[in-house]
């Protein structure tokens, strides 16, 4: 496991990551309607921001919250700290492809959307009972009831 954690965030492996083709369009629609906050557990902040830049994702997120997967079991603390430090009406929706994402959202009483084309199978995710399943990124605005261009 330790060796996997070291390798998974190495640039030699990250370079194989690709965006789902409709990602820029969907992120643009969402960004125009809400603040998008990326919450992730990573060992290397430097490589995370390198990858976000390489994939052209930096401009979509108003905040990037990063925690250590070794120190944190889930993303709850990152989100709670953000909410406490940014008083106001904040509505979070957790969208992710792992049990960590779904467990975090459920623990915090948030809407959870499981991405079925990520690293976990739909069958695995169904056992977690998220609020919605996302089989295709282009339907996300519809699930969230956010329209496209006005």
Explain this structure to me?
The structure is a single chain. This protein is of the alpha/beta class and 150 residues long. It has a single domain (2-143), classed as 3-Layer(aba) Sandwich (Rossmann fold), CATH 3.40.50.1000. The protein is built from 8 helices and 5 strands, in the order H-H-H-E-H-E-H-E-H-E-H-E-H. The protein has helices at 2-8, 11-14, 23-33, 45-54, 76-85, 99-107, 122-126, 140-143; strands at 37-41, 63-67, 93-96, 111-115, 132-134. The strands form 2 sheets. The chain has a 3-stranded parallel sheet. Helix 7 links the parallel strand 4 (111-115) and strand 5. The chain is globular. The mean pLDDT is 88.
The whole-angstrom Rg is 15 Å
| Integer tally of domains | 1
Quantity of strands, as a count: 5
Individual helix count:
8
Q: Name the shape in a single word.
A: globular
Strand order of the largest sheet: 3-4-5
What are the secondary-structure elements, in order, as H or E? HHHEHEHEHEHEH
Briefly note the structural class of the backbone.
alpha/beta
Residues in helix, %: 40-55%
Give the full name of the CATH homologous superfamily: HAD superfamily/HAD-like
Question: Span between N and C termini?
Answer: 48 Å
Overall average pLDDT:
88
Q: How would you characterize the largest beta sheet?
A: 3 strands, parallel
CATH class: Alpha Beta
CATH fold call: Rossmann fold
Give the secondary structure arrangement, pairings included:
Blueprint: H1 2-8, H2 11-14, H3 23-33, E1 37-41, H4 45-54, E2 63-67, H5 76-85, E3 93-96, H6 99-107, E4 111-115, H7 122-126, E5 132-134, H8 140-143
Parallel strand pairs: 1-2, 3-4, 4-5
């Amino acid at each position: 496991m330790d060796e996997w954690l070291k390798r998974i965030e190495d640039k030699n492996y990250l370079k194989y990551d690709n965006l789902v083709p409709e990602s820029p369009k969907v992120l643009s629609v969402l960004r125009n309607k809400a603040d998008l906050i990326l919450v992730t557990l990573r060992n290397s902040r430097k490589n995370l921001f390198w990858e976000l830049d390489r994939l052209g994702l930096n401009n979509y997120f108003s905040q990037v919250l990063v925690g250590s997967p070794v120190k944190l079991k889930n993303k709850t603390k990152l989100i709670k700290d953000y909410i406490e430090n940014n008083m106001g009406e904040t509505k979070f929706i957790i969208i992710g492809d792992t049990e960590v994402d779904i467990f975090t959202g459920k623990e915090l009483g948030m809407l959870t959307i499981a991405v079925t084309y990520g690293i976990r199978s739909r069958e695995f995710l169904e056992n977690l009972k998220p609020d919605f399943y996302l089989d295709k990124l282009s339907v996300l605005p519809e699930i969230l009831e956010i329209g496209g261009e006005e």
